[in-house]
Amino acid sequence: MRIGIMGGTFDPIHNGHLILGRDAREALDLHKLIFVPNWRSPHKPEGCPAPAELRAAMVKAAIGREPGFDLDEVEIVRGGTSYTIETLLHLRRLYPEADILYLIGEDNLAQLHTWRRIEEIHHLVQLVILARGTDGPAHPYITLHQRRVDISSTEVRERIAKGQSIRYLVPEQVRDIIENHQLYRGDLSS
Known about the structure:
7 helices, alpha/beta, 190 residues, Rossmann fold, six-stranded parallel sheet
């Protein structure tokens, strides 16, 4: 069994995450792709505008009808700063025989050396770099060149704060959660 893991703040999850996840699932022949929203990223100590439970609810709503997409709330349940190594140890216990591939965006490559227990991560999983171009720095990981999807969580939050539409940027179920909880209103700083 081949399992992909996509972690992040998902603040909010958007259609770009879903498109790239679907592409990765197909290109890497994954049985499933597990989305793992974090409680608080060690690389974003200021936290997230939306509470962790609502970010997890948005991920669940976004992937609910997509075969092969799953949600694991281990980092939400654990609370505190979310470290990839702890999550990967948890997933390795759940799937001891699986090939686990951890997907990260190319923009995270420069910070990879700062990740807690990075050498152990290398032994637990295979890292897959989601690249948006054909030329990049040499590294020992699988590089999956993907289509360019110019949607970001920052853009979604900024559009909401300005009172602009986010239709077609996020799934309708996610938009409903954002509207029902009045998330990201008037906050352009995050």
